[in-house]
Specification:
Layout lengths: L11 H15 L5 H8 L10 H16 L4 H9 L5 H16 L4 H9 L4 H8 L3 H9 L6 H17 L5 H7 L25 H18 L1
Length: 215
């Protein structure tokens, strides 16, 4: 019998680590310096080292505080030196968990680092007074608003690999041929739902930047 063993490309783990860090930062789970710690790993041919492992464990532990990917954090903390294959699998699991888990308690702060109150209220279709109450915790964030907030955090994390904060804000208001000449913000109006076709096209456009940066 010939046993086939999958091999993870040397650049796979550093790339995934940076993507997870960007997502966690946009969601407000970690501070921006957590992403800066792992950016150097994005270089082609970079290998996982002790500093990278410390950084991803920190991200996983912060995500666990939001009730996200607790099993992944436990696995990372229990494994002294995971192999690249194990770490790749854990990072992919964490990515999926972050994607599927709105965390408004943290995401208000994360997006507040990118957008001012007026911009964020407009994109979320909420009044500024309500937004401030949600941000402060004075009122719980309604599920539909939490879903839109999480969607924006995911889009911001996709854009963060190509744009700075100013560029991200401008991206939402620039007309795009792939959106039939409309700006992304024009497809995020009213009580929009992330599962609707319009927002889906916005996310697809943002994710293309991730694909380009990975090539």
């Amino acid at each position: 019998m010939v046993r086939m063993k999958s091999v993870v490309a040397p650049s796979d783990v550093p790339r995934l680590l940076v993507e997870v860090a960007r997502r966690a930062e946009a969601m407000g789970l970690v501070e921006p310096d957590a992403t800066a710690q792992v950016r150097r790993s994005e270089a082609p041919g970079a290998s996982t080292n002790a500093a990278d492992l410390k950084a991803v464990r920190h991200i996983a532990n912060q995500a666990r505080k939001a009730g996200i990917a607790a099993a992944t954090a436990a696995a990372l903390n229990n494994v002294e030196a995971p192999t690249p294959e194990e770490l790749s699998s854990l990072l992919r699991t964490m990515m999926r968990a972050l994607e599927a888990s709105p965390a408004p308690k943290f995401e208000w702060a994360g997006l507040g680092r990118v957008f001012d109150v007026e911009q964020l209220a407009s994109l979320l279709d909420v009044s500024m007074s309500s937004l401030k109450r949600y941000q402060s915790g004075e009122r719980p964030t309604p599920d539909p608003v939490a879903a839109r907030l999480h969607f924006l955090a995911l889009v911001v994390s996709d854009l963060a690999g190509s744009y700075n904060d100013i560029g991200i804000r401008r991206w939402f208001h620039r007309k795009r041929s792939l959106l039939d000449g409309r700006a992304p913000a024009q497809l995020l109006t009213g009580e929009w739902d992330p599962d609707e076709p319009g927002p889906g096209r916005v996310r697809e456009l943002a994710r293309e930047l991730v694909s380009l940066s990975a090539t």
